[in-house]
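in:
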């Protein structure tokens, strides 16, 4: 019997590693079996401005019982999605935002959940862990976007809720003028008010850290670049890659420019001819790359989840850190549960609110 070469053995081990993480991820999405601890209450510093209620526009949202409304002056508005697979990550992200905020009582959370999700359970879970949090849950009709999604390189990227960021201007009430969008697989170690205060200039619709050293052409297929009418999309622009997991968005300008329609039009074209491979990111690049306001790279130390296939460990990029982002296949809670953490996963662990079975028995 011939022996397997070392390369084949390594490939086989890598495959088993990947399968084990996929199985763990799949088994972790039954959130009804998850219990979370109550987070400490965080208070505003004496210099924080007072919140003033400014609107009763609810836009069919589910408001939690501790909120007097949705729109406040002097608030920092944060938008995130909520789903079963990433609830544990979302809870850690919320805690990190509050813990490092100088005015935590002024942070308002806007959560988007699938219309088929158990929003009552999500509402109770968040309210129990954060009794003083101002938050709202907005139902997202994911059936409408499902028909626009093309298969990408990783199944998790094809979830309709992953496209909810395209529709924030429609989901959130008109009184919300500016929002910080955050993915669920990150933690902040700095004051989110600094990020929210990013200047957008006179025309920019959104701000995000740009990575101009990345090979921008790889985000689109040869079909795209070989078609002059398509490749001219970036004429008179200097497009750079940016990660859509951390963005500051001017919703007023977004609505005025009808940017949701512009993104949807590219998704419709993608259904007819394959012009990109990577989920919800390319439509954002097509519409905004080269026309966004800059944000310091410290606000998105991304890629800590490794690549989209194996999720191997990665190091921090050089420079200061305000936000750690486990974009990519590997998620810190999965690797920690498997006793196979990457070194940087230990930086996520202090924000984990999961109540362990041992603690529950005690």
């Amino acid at each position: 019997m011939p022996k397997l070469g070392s390369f084949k053995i390594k490939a086989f081990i890598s495959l088993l590693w990947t399968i084990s993480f996929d199985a763990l991820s799949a088994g972790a999405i039954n959130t009804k079996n998850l219990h979370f601890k109550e987070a400490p209450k965080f208070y505003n510093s004496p210099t924080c401005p007072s919140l003033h209620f400014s609107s009763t526009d609810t836009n069919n949202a589910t408001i939690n019982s501790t909120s007097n409304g949705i729109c406040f002056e002097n608030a920092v508005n944060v938008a995130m999605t909520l789903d079963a697979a990433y609830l544990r990550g979302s809870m850690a992200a919320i805690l990190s935002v509050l813990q490092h905020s100088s005015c935590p009582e002024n942070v308002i959370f806007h959560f988007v959940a699938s219309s088929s999700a158990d929003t009552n359970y999500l509402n109770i879970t968040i309210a129990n862990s954060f009794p003083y949090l101002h938050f709202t849950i907005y139902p997202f009709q994911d059936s409408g976007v499902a028909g626009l999604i093309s298969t990408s390189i990783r199944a998790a990227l094809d979830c309709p809720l992953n496209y909810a960021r395209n529709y924030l201007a429609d989901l959130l009430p008109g009184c919300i003028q500016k929002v910080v969008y955050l993915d669920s697989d990150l933690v902040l170690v700095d004051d989110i008010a600094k990020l929210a205060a990013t200047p957008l200039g006179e025309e920019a619709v959104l701000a995000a850290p740009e990575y101009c050293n990345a090979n921008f052409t790889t985000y689109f297929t040869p079909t795209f670049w070989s078609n002059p009418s398509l490749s001219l999309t970036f004429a008179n622009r200097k497009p750079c890659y940016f990660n859509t997991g951390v963005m500051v968005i001017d919703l007023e300008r977004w609505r005025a420019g009808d940017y949701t329609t512009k993104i949807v039009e590219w998704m419709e074209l993608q259904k007819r001819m394959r012009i990109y491979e990577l989920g919800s990111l390319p439509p954002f690049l097509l519409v905004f790359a080269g026309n966004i306001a800059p944000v310091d790279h410290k606000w998105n130390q991304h890629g800590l989840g490794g690549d989209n296939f194996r999720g191997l460990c990665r190091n921090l990029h050089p420079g200061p850190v305000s936000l750690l982002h486990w974009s990519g296949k590997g998620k810190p809670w999965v690797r920690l549960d498997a006793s196979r953490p990457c070194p940087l996963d230990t930086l996520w662990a202090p924000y984990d609110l999961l109540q362990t079975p041992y603690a529950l028995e005690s």
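note: Residues 1-28 have pLDDT under 50 and may be disordered.
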